[in-house]
Amino acid sequence: MRRTTSTLLALLAAATFALSGCTDPADKPTEPEPPAETPTGTTTPAQEQSVTMTDAWVRATEAPMTGVFGTLTSTAEEDLVLVAATSASAGFVELHEVVGDETGERVMQEKDGGFVVPAGGTHVLEPGADHIMLMDLDQALEPGQDVVLILTFDDGTSIEVTAQVRSSAAEEEDYVGGHGHGADEDAMPSGEDAQG
User: Fold this and answer.
1) Rounded CA gap, 164 and 147, in Å?
2) Where are the membrane-spanning stretches (predicted)?
3) Confidence (pTM)
4) Residue 96 is assigned to a structural domain of this protein
5) Distance between CA atoms of residues 112 and 132, nearest Å
6) Quick check: 50 pLDDT over 60?
7) Are the C-beta atoms of 139 and 65 separated by less than 8 Å?
8) 27, 193, 58: which is closest to 132 by C-alpha?
């Protein structure tokens, strides 16, 4: 009886060993693959940026609006258009141009279609011309502060720009607000208070 029991146990052990060796590897549980990393922001990594902004600065102000200036430079093979901008420092942001009206007066207005940055070229934003306008500021901007903006282009890419607040003379800024600038035209300040 002992011999039979021992024989049965040996056969059972051998069968278990044989079955474990024949298991299909595909039947084994696999470790789940880690989820693919997804972008955490809307900005394009520096090495992939086709447009950069250099010498970015903001005019210091105590008014509820001010201008952002600098030089946009493109390394793209096709023209790109700056179509929008945002900043946590402002209630909203607009792209502005300064043009002469029928009376010859210089008028600031929202730029339809945005700013074209030519392929391999530059587009300058400067006082009295094309500029980015920070609107509905909730506090004064003092020299030395930084303002962060996100600039979005027509190809869907965005870049983050840090612009330093600087004091600057505004004698060339004698224009007034025009149609389509997003503020009440009669309330739009002219001259130094326009800050654009």
Assistant:
1) 6
2) none
3) 0.66
4) yes
5) 13
6) yes
7) no
8) 58
Contacts of 28 (CB under 8 A, 6+ apart): none
Residue-averaged pLDDT of the chain: 76
Neighbouring residues of 36: CB distance < 8 A, sequence distance ≥ 6: none
Residue 116 lies in a domain: yes
Tokens of 1: 């009886």
Q: What is the CATH number of the domain that holds 115?
A: 2.60.40.1890
Q: Which domain holds residue 81?
A: 46-172
- pLDDT at 176 (0 to 100): 45
pLDDT in tens, 58-101: 999 999 999 999 999 999 999 999 999 999 999 999 999 999 88
H helices, E strands: number in the chain: 1, 11
Tell me phi and psi for residue 38, to 5 degrees: -115, 150
Q: Is residue 70 part of a domain?
A: yes
Burial class (CB in 10 A: 0-12, 13-18, 19+), 10: exposed
Q: Into how many domains does the chain fold? A: 1
Inside any domain, residue 20: no
